[in-house]
């Protein structure tokens, strides 16, 4: 399998090293010096594990400045915030899920307003259908997103079992939540806890 990774920063390069042990990996970056160093098996980051992988592990790993060549006929495109899982243990993705939600701003969350929705390091702009949240109140809330997100129960995986909601225009965190559970569309309750 051929995999393209955008960016050879710490996250991209770490994932590339792990994946290149069993797959063909092409890393694309815009910094020529980093590409040159990696082609010479020199880590552009001071990292013992990455240096060891480049020097001692058999890797199927190449780098390029040409994003079009890197992304042609790829089966997987990995970027910051994407979840990588084993095929026999996939994460749950859902557009509709239940979560415990707390309001963190004196201004109530407005209906039909776009908010940034951050799960782990993945940030997406969404029209989050939550409204009427009062400051410091805790709610059990159904959240409907326009695109799927990886969700988990917080006790299982903290990174994808919690999220924050950001008012992009005001640059303010207006809410946060945890304990995400997939629900079907017929169960549509929103209540104060």
Quick gist of this model?
The protein has 193 residues and is of the alpha/beta class.
Explain what this protein looks like in three dimensions.
The structure is a single chain. This protein has 193 residues and is α/β, with parallel strands linked by helices. It folds into two domains: 2-78, 3-Layer(aba) Sandwich (Rossmann fold); 92-192, Translation factors (Elongation Factor Tu (Ef-tu), domain 3, Beta Barrel). It has four helices and eleven strands, in the order βαβααβαββββββββ. The chain has helices at residues 10-19, 32-39, 48-56, 67-71; strands at residues 2-6, 24-28, 61-64, 76-78, 92-103, 114-119, 122-127, 138-151, 162-167, 172-182, 191-192. The strands form two sheets. The protein has a seven-stranded antiparallel sheet, with no helix packed on it. It has a four-stranded parallel sheet with strand order 3-2-1-4. Helix 1 (10-19) links the parallel strand 1 (2-6) and strand 2 (24-28). It starts with a strand and ends with a strand.
| CATH architecture descriptor name of the largest domain | Beta Barrel
Mean pLDDT equals 77
Uncertain parts: none
Q: What count of structural domains?
A: 2
Radius of gyration over all CA atoms, rounded: 20 Å
Key features of this structure:
single chain, 193 residues, alpha/beta, Rossmann fold, Elongation Factor Tu (Ef-tu), domain 3, 2 domains, seven-stranded antiparallel beta sheet, four-stranded parallel beta sheet, 11 strands, 38% strand
